[in-house]
Amino acid sequence: MAEREKHYFARGNTAAGLYTLFDSVLAGLDTVFVLGGRAGAGNARVLQELAAAWSNRGWSVHYIHQPLDSRLLEAVILEDARIGVVDGNAWGADPVLEGTEIRYVDMEKALDKEILEASADELEQLDHQISAIYNEAYATFHKTLLIHDEWEKFYIDNLDRAAADQIAAQLTEEYLIPSVRSDGDTHQVQVVHRFLGAATWQGAIDYVPNLTKDLNTRIFVKGRPGSGKSTLFKKLAAEAQSCGIRVEIYHCGFDPNSLDMLIFPDLSLGLFDSTAPHEHFPTRKGDSILDVYKLAIADGTDEKYADEIAGIKNRYTSSMKEGIALLESAKDTRDLITAIYNDALDIHALHELSAELLREVDQLLDPSVLH
């Protein structure tokens, strides 16, 4: 059953602030249940119970993790049935998806309102506190990105663009083959945007091994900051879409404007940035390394700028640690908020909400689509 699980993020604590891809992640589903209201750890518990129940039936389940604490969930998707359940605190105040039925579940029915009212002032203070911490963390990540831009410039200035274009052309010719291209309307090509990893209170977390483990071909793209990895992915994604090939696009959890991975399900192919903080290495047949530094960056660039790069790398690492420490503070503050809600949470009522939700989903299921 584990092989039928996918793990990823729909939001990220990034240099651009709290960034969401939920509209893309949930697009195309027939029904989305929104867990409305704050219920401490209650929403995450319900999501975990649903995911476990569906996984135990052998169904394909997407586990969408919280970007602050990846041990907790903020959404689950029952892939074959095209049904999703999402924490309303993570997906907008008034979510709308074209062609999707939205059903709301009032999670606050499991709360003792009198207990919460007695802690109203404390909760307001903690809400202000966590908001200020997040703002400081995002400002720190933005500063960190600017340092990263300094790092990238050494390699951008020494990039052989013709060689980089040739890499993209060769990959397109070898893998985006005509036999899998659709002659249909390319505007209907299925494209989904997700995060493969996130900056969490514990540091960088990624799910590359899980997302790629069933692929026949995995290309581990190595290089340096600014050596053209993200640009390569953008070119291949655009080419795939123009050819009618399904593609899953995974954004960088630090800089959402940058891409870290592409998966082409129909080709059983994945290409991903395999450098820190999500560095992985080939382990099986079908794995290969593509080193864009060796192929497209002027020889000796590392050595020529070694001293300057070392200084920038140290500043970058220090600034990133500062941002992660702020996320840890945010997590500590959220734990205080969660504790107050947990005191007001009726566990029996919460389990009843889970059971009712499972029954509602069962009523929607078409057994023929569940493998």
Can you characterise this structure?
The chain is of the alpha/beta class. The chain is built from eleven helices and 16 strands. It has helices spanning 22-26, 42-56, 113-118, 120-156, 161-175, 208-212, 229-243, 292-296, 301-304, 306-343, 347-364; strands at residues 5-9, 11-14, 17-20, 31-36, 61-65, 73-78, 83-87, 101-106, 191-195, 197-200, 203-206, 217-222, 247-251, 259-264, 269-273, 287-291. The strands form four sheets. A six-stranded mixed sheet has the order 1-5-6-7-4-8, covered by helices on one side. It has a six-stranded mixed sheet with strand order 9-13-14-15-12-16. β13 (247-251) and β14 form a beta hairpin. The longest helix is centred in the last third of the chain and has 38 residues, at 306-343. It is globular, with a radius of gyration of 22 Å. Mean pLDDT is 93; it is low at 180-187.
Summarize the structure.
44% of the residues lie in helices and 22% in strands. With 371 residues, the chain is α/β, with parallel strands linked by helices.
